[in-house]
Structure to design on (169 residues):
């Protein structure tokens, strides 16, 4: 993986790149996976779960807002920070989200965006799980991502979970 100075010093919203830029990118990556798998038109519901540090400090650090914007396809580098609060309020009030910027779906922030304050995923404290289901409730796609710092995100496949061992000391 090549990292440039532009990767290290990227523009983003929020007080913490691990809690805003990373979750926004993870949500966007999930919607891109749905699009590449040609599943967007079948999605009736999306669920986002934040674990560990993201779940514990989510609202204070803006993680839920970042996830909502990412699910709509916004990028940290280009999202209009002035419009963020209004858009998040609109999603909350309408109960509708524009998935990947193209598909309107029902979305209850209270039901579909879960903050697990005392649960963590095994690989990293900043874990996220996304799932999409069809109108009958059948799961179309699920993915786990980790915000590993500096706005960088890895998915479960790239995390090296099979090689990471707990510290026994």
């Amino acid at each position: 993986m090549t990292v440039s100075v532009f990767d290290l010093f990227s523009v983003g919203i929020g007080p913490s790149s691990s809690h805003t830029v990373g979750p926004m990118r993870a949500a966007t990556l999930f919607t891109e996976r749905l699009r590449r798998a040609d599943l967007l038109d079948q999605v009736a519901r999306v669920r986002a779960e934040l674990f560990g540090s993201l779940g514990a400090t989510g609202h204070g650090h803006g993680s839920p807002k970042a996830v909502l914007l990412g699910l709509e396809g916004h990028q940290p580098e280009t999202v209009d920070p002035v419009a963020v609060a209004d858009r998040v309020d609109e999603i909350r009030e309408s109960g509708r989200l524009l998935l990947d910027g193209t598909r309107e779906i029902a979305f209850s922030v209270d039901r579909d965006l879960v903050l697990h304050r005392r649960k963590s995923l095994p690989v990293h404290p900043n874990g996220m799980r996304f799932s999409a289901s069809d109108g009958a409730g059948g799961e179309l796609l699920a993915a786990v991502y980790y915000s590993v710092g500096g706005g960088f995100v890895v998915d479960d496949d790239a995390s090296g979970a099979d090689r990471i061992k707990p510290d026994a000391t």
Summary: The first strand starts at residue 45 and ends at 50. Residues 96 and 128 are 21 Å apart (CA to CA).
